[in-house]
Amino acid sequence: MTRTWTPGTSDAALSAVATTPRLVVALDFDGTAAPFVLDPMAARAIPEIAAQVERLAALPDTLVAYVSGRSMDDLRIITEHDDESPVALAGSHGAQYWFPGSGDADADSEAALDGTREELWAAARPIIDRYEGAELEPKTFGMGVHTRAATPEIEEAVFAEVDELVAARFPHWRRRQGHRVLEFSSRTEGKDAAMAALRAHFDATGILFAGDDVTDEDAMRVLTADDIGVRVGPGDSAATLRVQNPQEMALLLGVLADERAGGRE
Asked: pTM here?
């Protein structure tokens, strides 16, 4: 049962993960660290989140990662990430990785290089271009159809037409639908795979994962009793805690940082 967190308060589950020997703090980006904006590439983490990410990443045995459906190149842009960053990245829903100290550790990219994704883009673009407010996002392993600037009626129509196209010509591609976006990928990895990869790479004894969308539930469902999930905003969730928006998420990260730093003094 997901319970609503009261900003500024402690919580038993949050306190427990704050004292784990080796902690990974994994955050979805859009809707969790950053508010939704009409131009997806204009998204940036709110300053309060950025400050807490920097603070957590500086603590001993505490690793921070952004976990997103964005392709790695786009994820590095919107997170304002450079090669000196201590923050790990998991892109394409867990099919691409960047780790501090070692850099890119992408999954096998053959599916992105066989021309199939270009065929999908070419077939989908004329459909998407007919709908006002709909936008194609080419991705390393597929594409996204964004409708942040479209009406609900247009979203329903364009999603239905693209669904019909993919079902007819690319039936084995994985489909994901989130907040104002429909995605298709030639890869089957989800954010559950990202949790496993981060846990193994950093030898984590506990994970705090936060996300706001249905695609984040893949990660929520594989968290263990030593971890904690945080849902940002409304919707059914397997998370332990719920906050209302990225601003409250920043406050929760502040409490986590306080308790983790205090426990190590």
From this structure: 0.87
